[in-house]
Task: structure prediction
Amino acid sequence: MGSMLPVLKILKTISSYIGKGGVRAALFDCFLSSLLKMAKPRRKVAMDNLSIAFPQSDAEWRKKILIKAYNHLSSALVEYIVALNDPEVVVSWFEKTEGKEYLDEALANGKGAILLFGHFGNWELLGGWLALSNYPVYAMVRKHDDKDLEELIDSYRRRMGLKVIDKDNIREPVRQLKKGHFVAIAGDQHWGEGGIKAPFFGKLCSTPPGPAMYAFLTGAPIIPIAAYRDGKYTYTFEAQPPIRPQRQADKQKEISRLTIKANQAIEEMVKKAPEQWLWMHRRWR
Result:
C-alpha cells in the first residue's frame, strides 16, 4: 500500500489556509464546490440511488438534488476543518435543538442509549456537538488502514472531545451502555453478508445489525439523531422519539423489527432534506 503522506500534507495545508473561517474558508468552499460539480464523483451511483428512493421524481429534479448534495458536501467539509481549528465554536453553530429531552431522559434513566445516525447533514460535527455539550458519547468507527491518516483523524476527534470505539470491538459498546453512556452508530451503510435484510425506501438492503442487537442485549433505547443544515455554519440538532426494545420477545424477530424501525427513522431524515444525504454510497446492492 502506498504512503498517504502527500495526502496528509495537502490536508494540513488546507487546514492552515482555512484557519478559523472567514474569507479564505468561503473561497475554498466555492472552489471545492465547483470542482465537485465539474468532476461529478460517483454521479451514476447517486442518480441510481435517487431513482430508487424517489421513484416518482423526474431526471431534472434528481440532477438538482445531486448538485445541491455536492454543494452541501463541500460546505460540510470546510465547516469541519474550521471546527478542527477552533472546536469550541461548534456549540454556537447549533442554534436550534429539537428532541433533546429524549437524550436527557435516557441519561437520567441510567440505561444509556444507542444514538442512531446516518451520513447525513454533518455527522462529524454532530458527534463533536454532543461531546462538547458534555454528553458521555462514544462513536463506533472503522479504523483507517493507513496509520498516519488514522492518527490525524483520531487527533481531530480528540480535540472535539469525542471518544471512539473500533467497530470490531463488539463488547465495548455493551460495557459503555451498561454504564449509562451513549454509543453512536451509523445505520445507513451497506453491511454485506453480515447485515440484516430490511427495507429502506421500499427496497431491501443489507443493514447494520449493531443498533438493534445492542438495544436488545442491554435494554437501551435507540434514539435517531441528525444535524440538519439551516445555512452556512448553522445547524439544528434533532432527536426522534426513542425506539424501545421488547426484550421479552423472540430475539431474532425483535432485532429484525428494531432494524426496520431504524431504517424508517433514517428515511424520515433523508426525506426532510434529501440534498444532505450521501447519495454517492452504494446503499442498495
In short: The mean pLDDT is 93. The longest strand covers residues 222-231.
